[in-house]
Amino acid sequence: MKQPCILVVEDDRQIRTFLQFVLEKENYICLQAGLGKSALEILSKESPDVILLDLGLPDVDGMILIQKIREDSDIPILVISARDQDEEKAAALDLGADDYLTKPFSATELLARIRTAIRHSHPRQNHSPAFKVGNLELNTDLHKVFLNENEIHLTPLEFKLLETFFLNPGKVLTAQMIIQNVYGIQYAQDTRALRTLMAGLRRKIEPDPGHPIYILTEIGIGYRLVDGELNE
């Protein structure tokens, strides 16, 4: 099995050195770029498994770089940025980033997010219609949901909402992304309907809806289905 390759796009040399140390200690191959232009040159020749992208590059705004990368690549993009405003995070995710970490962050959290991104970029070959997280299972062929092996009834919209999360485990989904997928693009701003739908779904799948363990709220951004980190 080949070593996973991570492209670090960061203009701060000290941060690049730190990230290289952390990644190579975990047996990742680390490619580095201090400019957006350099990153695009590397991507024209290499196919890393994950891109770690700082938004504050000196030659091109990271948001524009996300758009350029997404024009011809679906490589997972994990934004690492000092910009901590919810609007910035949501904008990066809507443009095609897969995850967002605000500086400063721990090496442990970074590595966990990278592992999640790699799992999603290399799905299992024998695709199954069943998805499972903890004791919650969704079967797309049967159009059924099971909790602790007992079938639970969901409305069509609740099923579509849960399916959206199971198709993107571990990924932060903005409210706009979810609404467009569940309701349609014409309802893109109807966050109240999403909150109501989410509350109904949580009452059916969460042991304690007030303290969810399956679908977590990313305050100011959206929601995320846990992936490999469930503590029941």
From TrEMBL:
One of its GO terms (molecular function) is phosphorelay response regulator activity. Residues 5-118 form the Response regulatory domain. One of its GO terms (biological process) is regulation of DNA-templated transcription. The modification 4-aspartylphosphate is found at residue 54. Residues 128-227 bind DNA. Keywords: DNA-binding, Phosphoprotein, Transcription, Transcription regulation. GO terms for cellular component: cytosol; protein-DNA complex. InterPro entries: CheY-like_superfamily, OmpR/PhoB-type_DNA-bd, Sig_transdc_resp-reg_receiver, WalR-like, WH-like_DNA-bd_sf. SMART domains: REC (SM00448), Trans_reg_C (SM00862). The keyword Transcription regulation applies. Residues 128-227 form the OmpR/PhoB-type domain. PANTHER family: KDP OPERON TRANSCRIPTIONAL REGULATORY PROTEIN KDPE, REGULATOR OF RPOS. This is DNA-binding response regulator.
